[in-house]
Design a protein that fits this description.
Layout lengths: L2 H14 L4 H5 L5 H8 L7 H10 L13 H18 L3 H12 L7 H17 L4 H15 L15 H16 L9 H11 L3 H21 L3 H16 L7 H12 L4 H20 L9
Helix pairs in contact: 5-6, 6-7, 7-8, 8-9, 9-11, 10-11, 11-12, 12-13, 13-14
Length: 290
């Protein structure tokens, strides 16, 4: 897409959703930067562009925007770091973050936010220091959403990355018994449904939030309420042909109904078995982990 086409699209989305310019650029860039972009005069930094699109509920992956060489290298570094985390190679992930911090742009808010997010994961997964993990997450959120309060969620405009940070923070605070996350269930899920219009982004973020709430309901023995969230999430994942995290939710839903509703259990088991057959037929791994 040309900068003129991108500018027109952003202006259209902002006006369609009646999004305040100040909220859109808060902690990310200046209002002047947004106005110049909407007029098609220039592209901002690629990561700034990505966050603006996120806050408009869109994904940069669907915009046919190619990152410059520096942005590409940073994305590659992030992929490497996250792969190390997934594989439990925490020392290598930590080295990756140390290298990231030496990059020239690392002191900019969006990069500092990412660095603190990864440091939070390392503190929790490697060092089992939940308090320090929470501190990193709170700092990460405040880099782009200063003075954020979950009670006033509707007053803020969060992008995909910021919403993930919020969910991570809620999960960590819940471990400490410092927040009653189920009190925010409707507020969080409704916010996600309203603000994220891209189907893949919606499925990803809604799925992460729903998983957290389902697990908490199940921990408290409230399986029917957990199942209700699970069914609604599966509708979101499948209504547009998306399979993102569908196996995990089907497995969790079966756990909800097991030993309490045999009819529902068998009904969903048939769907689970059918999906497993599809995965096997096409040689795909049927992943049951979160």
């Amino acid at each position: 897409m040309t900068k003129e086409e991108v500018g027109k699209l952003l202006n259209y989305l902002r006006r369609k959703k009646n999004i305040d310019l100040e909220k859109l650029c808060l902690g990310v860039c200046s209002g002047t930067c947004i106005k110049r972009l909407e007029r098609g005069e220039r592209f901002p930094d690629f990561f700034v562009m990505e966050r603006i699109l996120q806050r408009l509920g869109k994904s940069v992956n669907k915009m046919e925007l190619l990152p410059d060489e520096q942005a590409y290298k940073i994305y590659y570094l992030r992929e490497v770091i996250e792969k190390y985390l997934e594989e439990g190679e925490y020392v290598k992930a930590e080295r990756g973050i140390i290298y990231y911090e030496k990059i020239k742009v690392a002191d900019q808010p969006l990069h500092k936010q990412y660095i603190y997010k990864i440091k939070s994961v390392l503190e929790e997964e490697c060092y089992h220091n939940t308090l320090k993990s929470i501190g990193y997450l709170e700092n990460a959120i405040n880099f782009t959403v200063p003075e954020f309060k979950i009670e006033n969620l509707d007053e803020f405009l969060l992008g995909e990355e910021e919403m993930i940070l919020l969910l991570m923070w809620m999960n960590e605070k819940n471990k400490q018994g410092k927040i009653e996350i189920l009190n925010y269930r409707e507020k969080i899920l409704n916010y996600i449904r309203y603000n994220f219009s891209d189907e893949e982004v919606l499925a990803n973020i809604y799925g992460k939030a729903a998983w957290m709430f389902m697990k908490e309901f199940m921990k408290r023995g409230r399986k029917i309420e957990a199942a209700s969230i699970g069914i609604h999430t599966i509708d979101i994942l499948t209504e547009n042909g998306l399979l993102l995290n569908l196996p995990q939710f089907l497995e969790l839903l079966l756990l909800c109904y097991k030993d309490i509703n045999e009819e529902k259990y068998q009904e969903w088991k048939k769907q689970r078995d059918a999906l497993k057959w599809v995965y096997e037929k096409y040689g795909k791994k049927y992943e049951k982990k979160k």
